[in-house]
Structures are given as C-alpha cells and as structure tokens.
Input
Amino acid sequence: MAPLDGVLQLDATEDSLVPQEALVTTNDNNDHSFSGIMFTLEACSHLPLHHLEIEAVAVRGRLGQMTVWCSDYQPGVLSQNKRHDQDRWQLLHKSDQKESFSSFVVLPLDPPLTIKPGERRDLYIHSASFGDEGIVYDNQHGHITFEDRCLRILPGAAHLSSLPFGSQGPWGSPWRERRSFVGRIKYSALWNKWSPQNHQDFPVHFQAAVLTMLMGSRRQESLLYLLHEEIVHFILNKCNWDDFGVEQCEEQSEEDNSFSNFFSPAGWAELITTALSPLTV
Output
C-alpha cells in the first residue's frame, strides 16, 4: 500500500513538541532574608520530556536592583568554588524593583533557562539592596525544597553580600549553607509526541494502548483494520503522553512492572517490531 500524502504523514509531525505551562510556589516560612539565594533546579528523567524552559522567577523582599544568573551544575566543592566567579555564570535578568514584602515580584528570564531531562542547573537570585532584607528565603527543611512531576527545586546557600558574587560578608563568610529558595517559578514543559522511534520512552499504560491499537489494526474483524497503518500511527502521535493515565509514572504498581518486564526487552522488542512493521498487501 502506497504511503499517504498530505497532513497525515507522521514524519511531518512526530518531531513537534507539546508545551504545557506551570506556575509553582514553594513553602514560605519567612525564616530569613538577606542579599541572595543560590540553589539548584533539576528536570525529571522518567517521563517523555524533551526539556523544561524556566521562564520567570518571583521573589519578595526589599528587592532594589535585581539580577538572576544561571550556571551549569557542579556538586560539592566545585559548586562552592564558582560562587565568586562571575565569569562562570550567565545573566538572565536585570532590573530595578520596588520593595514588596507581602507579595512576590516576577523577574522574567531572557533567555529562558533550558533544562534537559535528568539535568541540573544552578540558579542565583541577588538583590543589591543594602541591609538584610533584600530577598526572603527559608532554612532547609528537607532534601528537596519543592517537587512536582517535572521540576525539582533543591536547597542551596544564602548570600550575605550586597555585591553580586561578593566575597565579603558582615560576619566573615558571606554564605550561609542549608538555605532554601522562597518564591515562585514559571516554566513550560515541552513534551515529546509518540512515534515508533521513541515508543519505550512513554509510560507503560501508553505503551499498552499502542500495542492494543496496532494489534487491532491487524485483525480483520476490528474497525481499526479499515484504517491505513499511517493513520493509526498519526492518531497515536496526536495523543498526549498522559492520556492513558499518569499514576503509573509516579510509582508503578507490581502489576505494571510485570507487564513492562514481560514485553521488554526481548519479548517486547519482538512484539513491537512485528506490530510496527509495514503491512504488505
């Protein structure tokens, strides 16, 4: 059967991404305030995510001249070594803001900060306001400051210098460890769309739905048999990654794991290769 022309060609749509916006807010215990907060962001790695785009952050405090910087993640001592090295950071925002102690002020990032699945990036938000009220932040209350299915915010360190990356504090070291970001983060998650090539990146329930439709398209008694193979692929490509449920992504049940193990790697590879192979008539 000859390939279909026009809008139903999968190769013209499979690389497009599905955006989904989110606005997250951390806990706010009003523990401390000073000049800045440096912390880490991490993108999830267990979903068919192409990347995250961090579009804006929001903080409160005396504010004043605000800057936001990003850098590649480096653990432990390496991370501490770059705290005073401005050349290792990229400026994403600079503005003058009026004080706002009760509500968050949005600081748009230009360009947005891109984080790939499983990747970590360091973020540094700084207020040049003199005194100890520049930005509100919290003590670290756990290993994770905030987490949803796409983004994880990790604790970091507070900065006690009104000079960005300043090395002098009012009482010696300008850094206070075990501190947490307080505020909001706006981001967009860009999701991959299904194709035969990225099939195993999708949740097990999505994989089961794909297999069911493809097997149905091979059975003459099924209505799916009336559809051209590329149309079946196109329909699946138009389904969002979570259309068949998301609970299994957070913590797959023993039954889900058994299903996935049954079809992968050897058994699943054989079945999906057969199901995805072109029909010959």
